[in-house]
Amino acid sequence: MLLEERLNNWIDSYNRNGYLNGTLLIASNENILLNRGFGIANWEHSVPNVPTTKFRIGSLTKAFTALAIFQLHEKQKLYMDDYVGKFLLDYPNGNK
């Protein structure tokens, strides 16, 4: 059985039991293995979640940004001591 089939079977079992509400993207080596929406995005209008549903994630963006910075640091594409101005040339006070 292909990995995509196994993932879909696994996700379907969670979905059947009502455990999922949102969207799920699983990728490996730049290949998308699964990209699906689950549950309801808007209960009042019965709008389902789809892969392109936009969510208000509030302060979680800081965690995603930090993770991306650490991944780039691991790949030596940036360093923790780099200033924002190194990448965004016109950023105000980017050299601080």
Q: Could you explain the architecture of this structure?
A:
There is one protein chain. With 96 residues, the protein is of the alpha+beta class. The chain starts with a helix and ends in a 22-residue tail after the last helix. It is flat. Helices cover 30% and strands 21% of the residues. The longest helix is centred in the last third of the chain and has 15 residues, at 60-74.
What strand line-up does the widest sheet have?
1-2
Q: Approximately how much beta-strand content do the residues carry?
A: 15-25%
What are the secondary-structure elements, in order, as H or E?
HEEEEH
What's the total count of β strands?
Answer: 4
Q: What is the general shape?
A: flat
Class from helix and strand fractions: alpha+beta
Number of helices: 2
Helix percent band: 25-40%
Q: What number of domains?
A: 2
Average of the residue pLDDT scores: 91
Which regions have little confidence, pLDDT < 50, spanning 5+ residues? Answer: none
Radius of gyration: 19 Å
Helix and strand arrangement:
Blueprint: H1 3-16, E1 22-28, E2 31-38, E3 40-42, E4 47-48, H2 60-74
Antiparallel strand pairs: 1-2, 3-4
Summarize this, please?
Helices cover 30% and strands 21% of the residues. It is an alpha+beta fold.
Keywords:
single chain; 96 residues; alpha+beta
